[in-house]
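Email to the structure team, subject: DUF4185 domain-containing protein model.

Hi all, the expression group asked for a predicted structure before they design truncation constructs. Nothing fancy, just the tokens so they can compare against earlier work. One-line instruction: predict DUF4185 domain-containing protein, return tokens.
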Amino acid sequence: MMTLKNYFSRFSALSITLCLASSSCQSPSSTEEVATVDFKTPNFRLVPTDTFHFNNFVDCNMAEAWVGDTLRIFPGKYGEDPVWGYATDLKFASGANADEIFSTPSEKYIAPRMPKNAPVGQPGLHGAVWFETVYQDSRDTSGRTLYAIYHNENYPETLPFNPQTEEGYIDQNWPLGLTERITPAAVPRIGVMKSIDGGWNWENKGLFLEDKQPRMILKPHNISKTFAGGVGDPSAVAVDDYLYLFYGEYGYPGEYNPETYSTETEASGQCISVARIKISDLEDPQGKAKRWDGKGFNADWDGIGSPISSLQISKENGGGPASSPQGGFHWGPSVSWNTYLECWVMLMGHVEGQSWVGDKIYISFNPHRDLGEGANSQAWTAPKLLVQKPGHVIWYPSLQPLNTPEDIAAKNTSLKLGKKARLFFKYSDLGKYMSEYIVEFEK
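Reply from the structure team: attached below.
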């Protein structure tokens, strides 16, 4: 949700070799401490299909939930944005199955009632939001109580620095953003909204995670034309009493100082990270979440965590910091529990150049349902290439349910899937969100 949208401690890592039908097994990095895991990593194959176009604006993960016997999806963007303009694209569609809502024409989408942006300098919602995941409160048997986990972007103009709260940004040495004209870079945060009527009306509940001003990466070092720092592009899954948030970390892992800045230090704290919050705290989330710090969920909601090391790209393999014009990191996770494989599946994008250029989508697996035990939340296999589209820029991958009796009966969504799932992603250079493949898994 980047504006992009619009155009440590070393832990004992579980090392799991990924063997695909199209590639050989690879050995784990020699820098990792290896623990034995009884997990046969799944094979998968892409099955080409007729192109299935999603008929509305998509610039984020696909947030969806079954409300009774109705599948509802919430793509788009809402709110103030001085660079790209005020947005009213966050709308929803409903249908009896996945194919029906994915085929809904844009004019049939409905705009929910959203909280208004607060005036600059006053408490409340600032900047634009994108819904990334919808958590459905299991205590409400009607399915109408929803919590939307949203990506939120601000600038020094919409969220100026407040020395009393230390929230906001200082417009000094601020990096440039994604547009081709002179505009500022955005800063993403992650927040929570709630609906008690199935998504027709939403109330802002507060922030889940944020990085503050000291961690922003400024001129002269930040020349990526994307973010000044921050956290965003999340995907959240519920396990027992917790909601686990996988997200992109774009800030400096410490206080940014141009005199002591290090590209290696920046890159060491970036890529895909994880935090968690008690589901009971979603009603009043701010300050309640904890980030993984390399040993456990110990870092504060606005503190410095540690990314998932198995998902990072080494410098030797083209890895680099988010502020670099060359890029070199994974971002935009989309996580689902696969009931056929009985493991977690994560899709992610791959930044290769300035302005988040990248033509590849990767996949990773985690065999541990309980993400809170030990280092289970870190036990992701090394990412393997899922699809590549040379000459294009592809973002926001997701696996989606099919229009089958099994998927409908199970009320599958992008958070819970089976043996087969439809692969969607956005051709950012074409402005189109579509599916050209079904992914079929094998144990």
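The chain has one domain: 3-442. The first strand starts at residue 43 and ends at 53. Ping us if the truncation boundaries need rechecking.
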